[in-house]
Please model this.
Amino acid sequence: MSRPSDLVQGTLDLLLLKILALEPMNGYAISLRLKQVSGDVLQVSDGSLYPALHKLEQEGWITAEWKPTENNRRAKFYSLTRLGKGQLERESANWGRLSAAISNVVRLKEV
Amino acid sequence: MRPRQWFYTLPLRLRTLFRRDRVEQDLREELQYHLEKKIQEYLATGLTLDEARRKARREFGGLELSKENCRDTRRVSYIQDLLQDLSFGLRMLRNSPAFALVAILTLALGIGANTAIFSVIHGVLLRPLPFPKQDQLMILFEKNNDGTRSNTSWATFMDWNRLNHSFTGVAAVSFWSPTFVGANEAETLIGFRASSALFDLMGVKFERGRNFLPSEDVRGNNFVVILSHGYWQRTFGGDPGIIGKSIQLGTRAYTVVGVLPADFPSVLSFDPRKPADIYTPLAYDATLPYACRDCRHLRAFARLKDGVPIAQAEAEMNQISANLFREYPTAYSASGVTLTPLKDYLVGDVKTALWILLGSVGFVLLIACVNVANLLLAWAARRQREVALRAALGARRTRMVRQFLTESLLLSLLGGGLGLSLAWSGVFLLQQVRVANLPRLENVHIDAWTFAFTFGISLITGLAFGLLPAFRVSKLDLNEALKESGKSTPGKERHRLRSALVFADVALALLLLAGAGLMMKSFIRLLEVHPGFDPSHTLTLTLSLWGPKSADAPAVAFFDQVLLKIQALPGVESAGIVSQLPLGGNLDMYGVHVEDKSLPNPEEDPSADRYSITPGYLRAMRIPLLRGREFDVRDVATSPMVALVNESMARQFWPGEDPVGKRFRMGDTKGPWKTVVGVVGDVLHKGLDAPHTIQVYLPNTQFTDSMVILAARTYNDPTSLAAAVRSEISTLDPQVPVSEVATMNEVVSASVANQRFGAVLFLLFGAIALVLTAVGIYGVISYGVAQRAHEIGIRLALGAARREVLSLIVGEAMKPALLGAALGLCAAFGLTRLLSRLLYNVKPTDPPVFAAVLLLLIGVALLASYIPARRATRVDPMVALRYE
Model:
């Protein structure tokens, strides 16, 4: 599956889970939110957003529901499941450990 | 994935699998929603609708690719893709029915032939006998001084039984032909006298009743029988209360004590066409005249003890045999015992032939694969644009390779299914018509093993012929293929590939045809062999006397009565009676001890086929008298003992002398002398391909058998007289069973059934190979010229002569064909050596056969390439050019 190359492997999953933990959202809203929170640093093409969402759905971490939107269109809303909450906690913890470790490495003084 | 996750996502998966339309609809709608929102967003920034649309699309990346990626995230997509590929494949096949038909038929022929031969090999060779630890079951033979094997005698058998430590037991059997006397008629049965240990040794579980008791294996106490399952069904309708009932065999009543299971193979019968019906205890004792040490008519079976290897048992038996030879130096011609696993003994004769058949039929399948691969290549080339379009729309190569493989597997499975029904018909034919005389044929079934085999080779062939086109397609140059013309340039590589296919086809076909040619020539040679008698216009049938009538004098009198009646029938030229029929499957041999030429150990004297005949027999069979006189009415029981010998015997014992007047003894070294009164021509007894043997004829007045064959020479079709002959015999005595009514031509024909089977199968394989090769070359060339219609048109328009273009195209096809023929020829020279054991009087590299096959194949290749080439050059150049 194609992934945005500048995202660390697995990070997109973490971001999506985190965004959905706040509130259920449809795909378009998620793409806006991604851009907004990362300030255009994290470029996720629309084309690769949906496969990622579908994958999370297949894993059972998020679930989808068709709901009407503000202007009465039907849209698919994703929300976090109980399994997803657990996964989010695990991935957050992993991310914390990983980023801390990488920061430490990066901060090493060159001799 | 963890179970809990499965629980959560199962409904999703099921939905993906079974509500594909809904899921697709959802996906489309979801992405559509996204795009629309984007467009709205851009419209708000002041772009025109068109610009907004384009921008949204561009930003999204490949819409279809994204969809496909979404589909990929669903794990069930493999199954789903398969279903989709299958339905797509079926649609494609429906759209090209001619292609589908040729491909499926080709595969059905290849797979069907393989399945049929495999089912025969599995039933005959691979399936174990239905006995526990069947590998331990052995058949034991004495060794002769000339290296051949021989039956054993009761005295020797008893010593083996007493002295060995290698076997859990040894059992012996001898032939028994009892007459079942029913209410209205009598029937001769095929039976055996068997040691009480036999069935226990084999581990038989009785269908009903029990085995013989050791106490019943004693003379005078032995009037009990065990029935075969088939006989029990045939004559007693499977009577469940048969045990304990009494049946009349000859003049004696026998009590039924057991019924064998249906799967008990007729291991004791030596002719697979005649399974044994009935068994009684052996019940010999030392006082019987045929219990002597050199009365070799028993066949011995044994079971190895657990952990005793064959070699060790054989070494022990050889030691025992050497001791016996030392103790009784004139009772054996050599020392030694051979142990043969029972199954090897049963199928040993046909083993090589069957494996060779499987090998050959494998080549047929290879040709089929080559042809279908070729068809698929052409088909794939026609679908280039479709493939290119799908690739451009984001379909990945692996996915397309999978699509193509699915299609070829679909083809091969359809072909396999059809092939299975072909195989089923073949096996049905083999069993019902009994075209071959194979042992264990009743074990041949289209069963789970056959299904597995067919499925397996279908998959393998599907992969084999599907991979090549699939990978070629996946390497397609998109730009080239998508060009408006949609036509691919012929390209050197493609041309090379097609040439390779023609090459392989021809090479394989030549190999098969060489085999077929050799087998046919061998079979024709075999049929041309003169058996020493004239088989035309001769009716034969078996008569067996029982009760008081079977004693010597009454039997001779009865046979004379029968002959008088038969000879009086209009249409009968002559008739005679003989104790065993040449090529009829009997082997009645006696040692001959010629006066002044007998060896110190009489056991080392050779044995001769023994025929007891009435005076009319030689005339009825047209066996020529070369010297001296035939038997006549003066040769009676009380007159001097006389004999006729055949040419081979005269030559062996009295070279350059007149055998008439010479004397010899038969069997017994102390019996009366028999004086040679004449010499007759050699007759082939064991088979048309067997060497000549020495033969002795005796008057049936001086050596009387109760079971004989009547041979009647007729003026017209002998079968038309069968009913009249039967009714004459039944008028004389309705209680005399008549069996095996056949013309002598049928007897000869049955004796070469296996050779015919081999020759016919090889011919069939060769014919299939030839047709497939012709179709293959035809397909390659027609496809090639269709691709090059444009080029051909230009050539013709530029003034090339049709002949030149024709020879150009045919030449291109013939080059690989000739190379293939050359390779096939080399391979055939190497491989036909394997056939040598099956060939009669034909060298495996017989030049005329090779030349004929080569010419035939080249002729067919020429024709198969000439027809499409000619069609191509007939095309109006203008039409071909405008075709663009």
Q: What stands out?
A: Chain B has 26 helices and 24 strands.
